[in-house]
Amino acid sequence: MTISRFTGRTALVTGAGSGIGRAVAVALGAEGAQVVVAGRRQEPLTETVRLIEEAGGKALAVTADVARAAEIQAVVDAAVDRFGSLDVAVNNAGVFRGGQPLADLPEADWHEQLDTNVTGVFLALQAEVRQMRTQPTGGAIVNIASTFGVHTRHPGATAYAATKAAVSVLTRGAALDHIRDGVRINAVSPGPVDTPMSLRPGEQEPDRTERARTTLPLGRISTTQEIATAVLYLASDAAASVVGTDLVVDSGATA
Ligand SMILES: NC(=O)c1ccc[n+]([C@@H]2O[C@H](COP(=O)([O-])OP(=O)(O)OC[C@H]3O[C@@H](n4cnc5c(N)ncnc54)[C@H](OP(=O)(O)O)[C@@H]3O)[C@@H](O)[C@H]2O)c1
């Protein structure tokens, strides 16, 4: 058996049925972790489990809405019941609702983003830290924030940006609160990534490619695998002294 960075460790990834979350879950599985994948819909999670198992890894799907405390607690409990510990958690589940100026955003869209992006990360952090601080080896948590947050502002994304700024601030505060419990907490803030979330209203993929070519310093958006690479670094022992950082991976957009 090859010994990899996460061999024998149990990892939890929220929003693992698609996009960045799926790429992170598959990468963790490929590097030896037993991966618990969470999200609201079963079908995409089943596909992520299949991809991990196909590559020789172990995975378990648990449906949960991260905005509900009992449901995210049940995901943590399932990880511990099945695999014996929770060593890594990636709080990735998030939604974007916007495209219009603040005054025109439906109130329901504000609440949905606040519930998933902020309350969801807060509740996940609570459930994860409460488990990890009981373990002799502690744990590592990576939250997915965004450059649309503390790093930059864009018209039509104000409510989303407020929620992602909260994720960056939650990360730094929680990191200080819990590093002496043996729980290391960091964030990754992606810029535009190759998932539907980075498409502007009415935009198709070729339009986005052209926009990236002309506006981003690198000339292209990030792949989900590139975000996963950053997440796995922060979750690994190589980042043992990295605490409360917010790692920007954005093709140079905020350089
Ligand atoms: N793509 C980008 O350009 C970009 C840039 C910066 C930051 N981000 C952030 O990266 C993360 C992943 O984005 P993505 O582009 O991969 O989007 P995505 O493909 O839409 O993935 C989001 C995932 O979160 C899950 N989810 C949504 N609400 C949930 C809830 N209440 N409880 C549990 N799971 C929930 C969704 O599954 P269900 O619907 O089945 O629950 C989905 O699988 C998000 O936090 C996003 O804000 C993305």
Automatic annotation (TrEMBL):
Chain intervals with Basic and acidic residues compositional bias: 202-212
Keyword Aminoacyl-tRNA synthetase applies: no
Domain annotation Ketoreductase: ranges: 9-191
Keyword NAD: yes
UniProt GO MF annotations: glucose 1-dehydrogenase [NAD(P)+] activity
Similarity comment: Belongs to the short-chain dehydrogenases/reductases (SDR) family.
Protein name, entry field: Glucose 1-dehydrogenase
Originating species: Streptomyces muensis
